[in-house]
Structures are given as C-alpha cells and as structure tokens.
Design goal:
With 364 residues, the chain is α/β, with parallel strands linked by helices. The chain is built from 17 helices and 7 strands. Bound molecules: zinc ion (ZN). Residues 60-62, 74-75, 77-78, 80-81 line the site of zinc ion.
C-alpha cells in the first residue's frame, strides 16, 4: 500500500478493519447511504468510534468532503464539525456521545441506562422523535444506538416501524456485540458490518507509530488486549483502568496458592459494595473473562508455549520469587471449565457474588 494511502486511512480513528472504512467512505462518495447500519463484533474494536466518525462525515456541511485516495474525511471547519470538536474539548464527565447529542441538534444517541437490563420503549420513542424532527442544518440526521443487543422488545418494535417507513437522510447506526440478539426483521432492513479482532502485530505497530510507546510496552498492551485496539488504547490512557485489570488478574494468581478462607476474603475485597443486579453481573463476567485468560496462560506455561501467553508481565512477576504458583494441567482444565460454567450462571441471573465464591471454593 502506498504510504500516502496508509496515512490517509489513519485519519479515520480505527486500526484494523480497513474493509469497513473503505466501505463507509465509498458509500459517502457514491451517495449510497443506507437508512440503517448494524456494526457488530466483540467489544473494544472501535465500533462506537467509527460510528461517531461516520456520523461526523455525514453531518459535515462541506459540499466537497475532503477526499484523498478515495477516503472521505470531515472538513473539520464547518459548524457541524466544530460542534463535534467542541465535544472533545469539553470535560463535564459526560460521555462524548452524550455531549454530542447536546451540542449537535442533528445527532442523537441512546444507550442502556446504568443498572437497567434493557433500552426502554420511552428511550426509543424519544430517540425516534428526535430523528423525525427536520434537520437543523438542512442535511442528515444521525442516530446511534449503543448496546443495541439490549433493546427491549417494545423498543425494537418501535424502531422497526421507523425502519419500515424510512425517511430520506435519516441514518440509524446500531452497535451490538452479537447479531443474533437483534430481531431478524431489523437485521434484514440494515446494512450489516462485521468488525473483527485485529492482529496483535498491527496493534503493536499502531501503538508504537501513533502513540509513541516503547516496544516492550506495546508488546505487553497488544497481547493483553487480545485483538481489541480500543482496549489497548484504554489501557494506555487510563492508568487506573489498567491497574484495576492487573489487580484482578493477580487475585487469580493469588488464589492458586491460597487456602479457601483467604480466597473468600479475596472475593469479598474484590467485589466490595454495590455488586448486585445487572451491573454486578457485568462486572463479574469481566472478572471471569480475565481469570480465564490468566488460567489459559498458566496452561500455556505448563505446555511450554511461552510465546502465546497473554499476560506475560504479570505472570513473570509472579514466577520470579520461585514459589509454586502453577496448579498443573488437570487442575487448570477444571478451573477453566468452572469459569465457563460461572459465565453461564451469570447469564441465568445467579447472584454474581455467589458465582465468584463458587469459583474460589472449587479452585483446587
Ligand atoms: Zn465539516
């Protein structure tokens, strides 16, 4: 790929998944914009970031959107682009998209409210109402639905009605982890774009080139983020988030050499207060995923596959004192199975505390 084209692609805030940038950019160039898009794939691949940038491109008031090597970019100077850039500068603690909705009259967003299981019909109605108003800037109206997997049945039906009678220049982007969780009637009316995990070396090079991090840090972050560039960047930018992750990984390594009482005390310490309901289940699910990763690493260590280890810095730190911390292949396989069962229990609404305690009890 010529250098200029490579650089231009990077103007879209995404690493990997260039097929999606190409597609969206071409659809703007050819004025073939769908009424609805579904961006789906695992978390932290940059789906929201791309949805926002695509919205910014669509809402840009520049007649000739900047085009180089066929990749469209917003002008950065018009009233719409300026509204978007104000979002970045503001620091009110709201999410960037929430801010966007406030600052930009033609941009709407819904996401599941904290501690609610679903996106409600009321939220969907408000969202549709906003999109049905005529455009403030006389062009597109763009709506983004985050965690579209969590639309309630009524909310999905209200949305379907809107999609059945599409309005010109109204674009809805649904973001979801799984396509199966979105009603087929909505899927069939949408342009579906699948985001894939990104190769570790691509994330590694991106961190070195764009974020100027050292090669050893890039190696650590690209492995630990398991193909999810947005997660690698989150680890890089948010030290507390990274510490929280590594603390949770280390708890599991501690478990392996602790007795049952120490482990239960560890659970108590990890979850603290407010660990119930949907948010508690979500947090517990993330913890189990981290532990699965660490358990897999210990298995790989036992099998002599050091190169494939995800958490090499954490494991090296633990291995150094020379203490016995690897429970062996048979036990690890059992633990990995229990972690998987724990995730199923969480899905079936078993108390998150109970699920984690069960894992801790059955670790040896
Ligand atoms: Zn613009």
């Amino acid at each position: 790929m010529p250098e200029s084209k490579k650089k231009e692609k990077l103007s879209w805030p995404l690493v990997g998944n260039s097929h999606i940038i190409d597609f969206l950019s071409k659809s703007i160039t050819n004025e073939k914009i769908a009424n609805a898009y579904i961006f789906f794939g695992p978390q932290d691949l940059g789906k929201s970031t791309v949805a926002n940038y695509f919205a910014k491109c669509l809402l840009c008031q520049s007649k000739a959107k900047l085009k180089r090597d066929e990749i469209v970019s917003p002008c950065g100077e018009c009233v719409s682009c300026l509204a978007f850039s104000r979002i970045k500068k503001s620091n009110s603690g709201q999410s960037q998209e929430e801010e966007a909705g406030i600052i930009h009259g033609d941009f709407h967003l819904i996401e599941r409210e904290k501690d609610k299981k679903n996106i409600s019909i009321e939220q969907a109605r408000e969202f549709i109402k906003g999109l049905n108003l005529s455009s403030f800037l006389g062009s597109y109206k763009v709506g983004i639905i985050k965690e579209a997997d969590s639309l309630s049945l009524e909310a999905a039906n209200a949305l379907l009605k809107t999609l059945e009678e599409p309005k010109e220049k109204v674009v809805i982007i649904l973001i979801a982890a799984n396509l199966e969780s979105i009603p087929a009637t909505i899927v069939s009316r949408s342009q579906v774009l699948n985001f894939y995990p990104v190769k570790t070396d691509i994330i590694h090079n991106y961190l070195v080139d764009e974020h100027k991090v050292s090669r050893s840090l890039a190696k650590n972050l690209s492995k630990i983020s398991l193909g999810r560039p947005a997660l690698a960047v989150k680890f890089l930018k948010d030290k507390n988030f990274y510490k929280d992750y590594t603390d949770k990984a280390k708890i599991f390594l501690d478990f392996v050499r602790q007795d049952i009482n120490e482990r239960l005390a560890g659970i108590e310490k990890t979850i603290g207060a407010g660990f119930s309901g949907q948010e508690g289940s979500k947090k517990a699910f993330k913890i189990l995923e981290i532990w699965q990763g660490v358990a897999r690493d210990l298995l790989l260590l036992d099998l002599g596959q050091k190169d494939l280890i995800q958490h090499h810095t954490i494991i090296e730190e633990f291995a150094r004192p020379g203490g016995k911390f690897n429970p062996g292949i048979t036990t690890l396989i059992k633990i990995i199975k229990n972690l998987e069962i724990g995730k199923e229990y969480l899905g079936a609404n078993v108390s998150p505390k109970l699920v984690l305690e069960n894992i801790a009890i059955n670790i040896s």
